[in-house]
């Protein structure tokens, strides 16, 4: 069996050397971000596809700012679901560090492995850091559920919009409505959160795997009764918007109001994300 190439990314951390547990004074901030002066290098990166980049710096930007990931070129026969994990370091591990190397040593059989985000928290004596942490409550791993207009098939279920698996390379990783032409107007998707929140940002976009199957306008309705109409250019990039109200919300419903041409079909969403700073109640 051929030896598999190890996937490595190296982070150069911004700011002063780290302080760790045992000295919990000051502000707890994420030092592994571009905004806080971090940088990175990697031994592998996938080429740009449809104007979407896969540089390691993507992992140093919050997903509510940049959904792109760091992705490698390694290949296999299957995809894997996304997951995240946090680790609490033992006292004095990482003390005084100015960089960290993250190496993938074992994975399930997947292709284009990499990281969608890297967060590294440490205590800082300064107040000059720009730090924000938001939670996507429209995520199936956070208990979100959905319902939608009739899809093309069961394999194109609306739950596919509630994870971070990209439809850039496999169209069946996105929700596709079973519509043609003007019948695509009025298709909808409703996402219910597992807990009530006051949103900060929300993101949505046309299917990444779509080819001339794009909506141009949607209406976003919230459980509070708040509503807004949004226009979309003829592209496949995720768009994020600020939530300007201060209502507590339990669900979001997105309805297609217009399409870019009468020949559009199978319109859908690559993702619907709703970010909040915290939870209100279960």
Task: Write up this protein.
This is DgyrCDS14752. By secondary structure, this protein is mostly beta strands. Strands 8, 10, 12, 15 and 17 form a five-stranded antiparallel β-sheet that branches. The chain is globular. The protein has two domains: about 1-130, no CATH class; about 135-275, Sandwich (Jelly Rolls), CATH 2.60.120. Mean pLDDT is about 75; it is low at about 1-5, about 15-25 and about 75-80. About 0% of the residues lie in helices and about 30% in strands. The protein is built from no helices and 17 strands.
Provide keyphrases for this structure:
2 domains, 32% strand, 17 strands, Jelly Rolls, mainly beta, five-stranded antiparallel sheet, 282 residues
């Amino acid at each position: 069996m051929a030896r598999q190439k190890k996937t490595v990314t190296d982070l150069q951390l911004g700011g002063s050397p780290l302080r760790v547990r045992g000295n919990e004074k000051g502000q707890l901030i994420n030092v592994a971000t571009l905004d806080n002066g971090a940088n990175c290098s990697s031994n592998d990166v996938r080429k740009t596809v449809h104007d979407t980049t896969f540089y390691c710096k993507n992992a140093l930007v919050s997903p509510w700012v940049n959904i792109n990931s760091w992705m490698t070129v390694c290949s296999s026969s299957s995809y894997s679901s996304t997951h995240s994990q946090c680790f609490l370091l033992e006292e004095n591990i990482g003390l005084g560090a100015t960089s960290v190397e993250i190496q993938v040593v074992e994975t399930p059989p997947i292709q284009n492995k990499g990281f969608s985000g890297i967060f590294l928290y440490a205590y800082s004596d300064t107040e000059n850091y720009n730090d924000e942490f938001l939670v996507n409550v429209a995520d199936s791993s956070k208990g979100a559920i959905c319902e939608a207009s009739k899809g093309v098939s069961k394999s194109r279920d609306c739950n596919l919009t509630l994870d971070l698996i990209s439809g850039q390379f496999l169209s069946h990783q996105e929700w596709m409505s079973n519509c043609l032409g003007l019948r695509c107007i009025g298709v909808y998707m409703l996402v219910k959160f597992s807990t009530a929140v006051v949103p900060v940002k929300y993101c949505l976009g046309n299917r990444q795997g779509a080819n001339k199957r794009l909506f141009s306008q949607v209406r976003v309705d919230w459980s509070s009764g708040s509503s807004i109409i949004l226009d979309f250019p003829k592209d496949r990039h995720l768009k994020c918007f600020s939530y300007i109200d201060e209502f507590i919300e339990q669900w979001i419903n997105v309805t297609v109001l217009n399409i870019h041409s009468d020949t559009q079909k199978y319109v859908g969403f690559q993702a619907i994300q709703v970010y909040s700073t915290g939870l209100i109640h279960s």
